[in-house]
Amino acid sequence: MVGLSGCYTPRPPSGAFPGLYSATTGLLNLTREYGASRDIFDDDKAIRYSTPARFPACGADTSFVVKLDWAAFKSVPGVLPIGMPAAIVLARDGRGIDESEVANIEWKRYRQQLEANGFDLLYTNPTAEALPVADYFTNPYYDYFPVVGISYEQANAFCLWRGHVIANALNRDKLGSPDSMAAAHVVVECRLPTEAEWEQAALAKRGLPYGSKCPEIPFEINPEAAAYFKKRSGSVASEQQIRADIRAYNRTRPARFPINCDQSGPYFLHLASPAYVYDGPTNDYRLYNLLGNAAEMIQERGIAKGGSYRDPLAACTVTSRSTYSGPSPTVGFRCITKATQPNRK
């Protein structure tokens, strides 16, 4: 859905809509499979959170957010906003962080590109036993849900591949820059964030447990998304019953913490898996789901940040840590990206 600045942002996320291009690499898809419309209720139309006009206590606080003074950046001017798909500026040295967790569809595109180049896909398979539900990776319903069930090594391999792909695309358009010794040659670093970088993105310096002064936020559920919520929750109730129960619930004018975690609520909001990567309002960096949804791998091996859909709200704070020892149904990731021209003097 579209968030708004502060607790929200007034623009749609760069990868929110199914299309022909990857949100993480900018590559054109190799087949029509991922460019065609899914026969599924649009994820971004399932839940609508309140606007600032109705909920002014949720105003923006950008005191800890990097100002976009491009002339002062140490990175390649203009490359980050143009050549780094889905990246949000995090630091003046040009580091950007993904606006959302890496989604299943991006992992599918990764596999698609590797297969086209003759690579064995066995290493890129999510671990079936570590998926939230059996068809989590194969069913297009979950395309825009975070990829989970992968290892630390697999996530690192994805980031490394992604950096090479973006750099190759940037260098194709620069005279002489395909030559790795040319002054214009662009190098793109793509990796997991450190714990310090992740906490910076979560606005931990504010000293607020959830990085924002937003309390519970009013929201409304779309009754026409009954089938969507039936699948997401794993409910055995009929679509007709869920639709009626949604309408009744909306009449109570509900409010909740906009974090996908194990919190009280009606059965149709239960999460049998992580949810839509662009679900809910953003933080003041315009980042989605840093807290809850999928806990996120960081460079510090075996540590995940932010809590997950199976964790209570108290375990989904900006400083929360959890541990994992291998592929897990609750752990995903997002990447840090940075472009430099190391040969330029």
UniProtKB/TrEMBL annotation:
Superkingdom as given in the UniProt entry: Bacteria
Annotated ranges, domain Sulfatase-modifying factor enzyme-like: 97-336
InterPro entries per the UniProt record, alphabetical: CTDL_fold, Sulfatase_Mod_Factor_Kinase, SUMF_dom, SUMF_sf
Protein name, UniProt field: Sulfatase-modifying factor enzyme-like domain-containing protein
Organism (species): Hymenobacter glaciei
Lineage of the species this protein comes from: Bacteria, Pseudomonadati, Bacteroidota, Cytophagia, Cytophagales
